[in-house]
Amino acid sequence: MAAEDQSQASQSDLPYVLILKPPASFLLFGDHFFDSPNFQYLKAYESPLPLPHFLHTHAQSIQALLSSGGAPVTADTIRLLPRLGLVVTTSQGLNHIDLSECRRRGIAVAGAGTIFSADCADSVVGLLIDVLRKVSASNRYVKQGLWSSQGTYPLGYKLGGKRVGIVGLGSIGTEVAKRLEAFGCSISYNSRSKKPLVPYTFYPNVVELAANCDALIVCCALTDETHHLISKEVLSALGKDGVIINIARGPIIDEKELVRCLVKGEIRGAGLDVFEHEPDVPVELFALDNVVMSPHSAVFTRESFDDLCKLVVGNLEAFFSNEPLLTPVALDDLPHFSGRKD
Amino acid sequence: MESIGVLMACPMNPYLEQELHKRFTLHRFWKVPDKSTFLTTHCNSIRAVVGNASAGADAQLIEALPKLEIVASFSVGLDKIDLAKCKEKGIRVTNTPDVLTEDVADLAIGLMLAVLRKLCESDRYVRSGKWKKGNYMLTTKFTGKRVGIIGLGRIGMAIAKRAEAFSCPISYHSRTEKTETKYKYYPSVVELAANCDILVVACSLTEETRHIVNRKVIDALGAKGVLINIGRGPHVDEPELVSALVERRIGGAGLDVFEHEPEVPEELFGLDNVVLLPHVGSGTVETRKAMADLVLGNLEAHFLNKPLLTPVV
After folding, report:
1. pLDDT given for residue A341 in this prediction
2. Family assignment (chain A) (predicted)?
3. In terms of C-beta density within 10 A (0-12 exposed, 13-18 middle, 19 or more buried), how is residue A240 classed?
């Protein structure tokens, strides 16, 4: 009896981390995936109370929040948490967090750092080779027995020597560039600002970048400025021999326009891991062999999830022991994120 | 040169066929109803054979063409040509090296990514509407995996260079150790297979390398290992590979070539860790044109008594 009281007492001493909705990791690995002996979770989604009521009840206990892409951290939520000192996100993207409000309140934000960059870059290269060399389409062809009955599959297009244009030369964009250089591609990019020590050609706007490349790779963050950045004008500049790859966020591309271009053959093809209204995907794409799609899975490897677990727990433990965060997000020079769900 | 007879072994490229037809008297072997009568009739006018990975010039064909001077292959592989017989009879042989190296290496990496990251299956998942019900399964990271290359020639080196950009440690097996490279050498394919995560076949097909990937090698590669074949089908003991894949004794495979193309073992069709391609290693618009130009260039050089561009024999 006494021992139980003892453990209950020490349990209630542990600081609380709020979770609004279960992250993908919980669905895959169960809800003890991010456990630590140094803190405990408060799962809002397990309570019958409406969220504002729940937050009001626990407002004084919540010092940290574990967020994921599907659970936006809006200014309204933040205002109900007076003791909130840290938001940790399981995703690479930050567009679901109102970073301005965090900065105003002095709330720290811990991101994914660079743990997902390799897998994202690998997905880009995989999708690009697939589109150009028709890997998924010809795999389908063979598995339907058509090679022996109908003969050779149409030729693809060479990757070597192609001009690659990267939209957003952050950690992921840099890893993409490094890989594609080894295939003999030439690299150019557009970013908010030119990167001084980078050997690649800078274009001041995405239309010019698209006009001067054969493969346009979207690797930037979703912000108010980058919403529908890949517009009709950009796709037109990319042209009928151009390919587009998107592993960033669906709303960066004007999806209706992209679908129209693909259906009409105005661009050569597309590799898409993300869409404007996931998990809904425009059905017109299903009829196209020059489109390769994946279900927002660019970082969904066992290895990345292992790394994520260590990182999330590491950041929370650092916060609660007053040590520096492992992957703090700089909140000074921010583009505008309105905290909208992606 | 219109009177020079050129025998094209099988359909391989419309542009090449057109150009051969323009410049020579082209005989399309696959359209001939009775091959032995044809050979008897035309044996004195045929001075060149154009072959590829599927059909070339075996001893029987060479013997039937007493005026044969040159075999120009629309491929880098020479396994369909009886090289010894050509040497014996003073027949020149050319192939298409270098122009296809990059495409084949690109495809090898594309297959590795497709198998490990289940790209084809993910695409299928989205197209089926299943994404609305839930996320696709976790896949395996490619960056940092150990890549073992059988054959460190032009294509093997190009694969190594690309895999290095993904921080993959590279090891290899070759007939002789290449001391000028920094990659780790293994004196046997079994040892190579035991020490890598992805084993890729990139050597030429000869009597010695037939079934170089056999049961022992497959066992050594193991349940987490992946086999990539962009060489020739006969490099791999296909029935052994099929049973290893069906029984999940090996982690997956990406195959561009098969023992009896275009026949592909149907047991592989339903496996989500297997990617099957219809021998498209050099199959791009750009490269096939370059290959065709090389075949044409070699033939022209030969008949103008100039040095051959890419002679093998």
Report:
1. 44
2. Belongs to the D-isomer specific 2-hydroxyacid dehydrogenase family.
3. exposed
